Amino acid sequence: MKAGEAGLGVVATGDRGLAVRVAHPHLLANYARAPVTFVRGDGCWLIDDREERYLDLVAGLAVCALGHAHPGIVGAIAAQAASLVHCSNLYSFEPAGELAGVLAELSGFERVFFCNSGTEANEAAIKLARKYAWRNGEPERKVVLAASGAFHGRTLGALAATDNPLYHEGFGPLPEGFAFTPFNDVAALELAVDERTAAFIVEPVQGESGVVPATREFLAAARRICDARGALLIFDEIQAGMGRLGSLFAFQHFGVRPDVVTLAKALANGLPIGAVLIDGRVAGALQPGDHGTTFGGSPVPCAAALAHLRLRAQGDLDAHVRAMGQRLANGLRAIAREFPERFDEPRGVGLMLGLPVRPPYTAKAIVAAALEERLLVNAAGRNTLRFVPPLIIDAQEIDEGLRRFRQAIDGATNERAV
Ligand SMILES: Cc1ncc(COP(=O)(O)O)c(C=O)c1O
């Protein structure tokens, strides 16, 4: 099956005889969609339109933390939908206020802004940082510094803070006032942050560019340097937050408190939501009229997020994530050592793991082979396989995933890899 056929409504046969139907010819072809159509989810499993069950180690790209169709989330969505679906931010309404309170209590950040996606959360954080400097009488402090390899989203502002030339190509001119500094390089950061820097934005674990954790030393230095130079420190926890690293917030794992945290993805376990957690000292920068959104804080996603936070508090999900992350990492390490010509050692934290693939083998070919084993994994940057399963995954499912993965490697021949 060629990726280019996606979007043409073709019927084709996969490499191992799996009949595939690309069913949606009118969807914009901005994704090279895999040749499968899912119709249902059940915990860590997705079921396609032929009733085939796939073990999902992607979780909607680090979204469905409590898995698919969790009854507690479904119930909260249904109850909220039956009561109030939308109400303008011109008024107060619940459960946005309640969710903001719970997030504030759990994080220690005083104020919360809700939007609809990760990109929007970063966009708001960038605007907040500039306005904060402006209100402090430093209008020249405009530069948003990001790290090499960073991914912060696809709107023009968030894209300007994203270090991927492929994503920039053809979309210029991008907004001014963005700069990059090498990831995990303290000496370079010392030089990069100056009196024009409004904020340094960084992912505690870079996701899209291949699951690369920041060092504790780098994030601690970022805190110290930003304080010394009067810049804000923003952690983009859109992928690494909400329990993925084995702590509710990534900043807790690293023991470094930023001024602003952006969240999205797993927050509402699958419903669209973004959030910016803002330190009280900074929050006054955005006043009525400065920033807004029609749907941000909408009741149904907020109800799902509240249910998610309540459900995760019922057990020790963080300890579970650490244990399952260890189990998956150990299994991937064993496979990497068995096939040293194909893989480097896995990296990552908790249940955010990457397995670097060595050329001429490609992560994309292995993802395709895994699909035929009814296993979902994802190809991220730097030719890395990304594993971000639902956080509720159990030991048996991890072992089953590793078994299917091992089988997929046997299927990913050198011919397919290049
Ligand atoms: C670290 C990070 N920031 C921002 C985004 C953008 O989020 P969204 O796709 O919800 O706009 C992503 C999405 O993958 C991400 O991983």
Structural commentary:
This protein is an alpha/beta fold. The protein has 3 domains: 1-35, no CATH class; 37-69 and 316-417, Aspartate Aminotransferase, domain 1 (Alpha-Beta Complex), CATH 3.90.1150; 71-312, Aspartate Aminotransferase, domain 2 (3-Layer(aba) Sandwich). Helix content is 36%, strand content 18%. The chain contains 15 helices and 19 strands. The chain has helices spanning 59-62, 71-81, 96-107, 118-135, 156-160, 165-168, 186-192, 216-229, 250-254, 280-283, 299-312, 317-338, 363-372, 395-411, 414-417, and strands spanning 11-13, 19-21, 38-42, 45-48, 53-56, 111-115, 143-147, 178-181, 197-202, 205-206, 212-213, 232-236, 260-263, 274-278, 347-349, 352-356, 375-376, 378-380, 384-387. The protein has a 7-stranded mixed beta sheet, sandwiched between helices. It has a 4-stranded mixed beta sheet with strand order 3-4-5-17. Strands 15-16-19-18 form a 4-stranded antiparallel beta sheet, with helices on one face. The radius of gyration is 21 Å and the shape is globular. Residues 1-12 and 414-418 have low confidence and may be disordered. The structure holds pyridoxal-5'-phosphate. Pyridoxal-5'-phosphate (PLP) is lined by residues 117-119, 122, 151-153, 203, 207-208, 236, 238-239, 264.
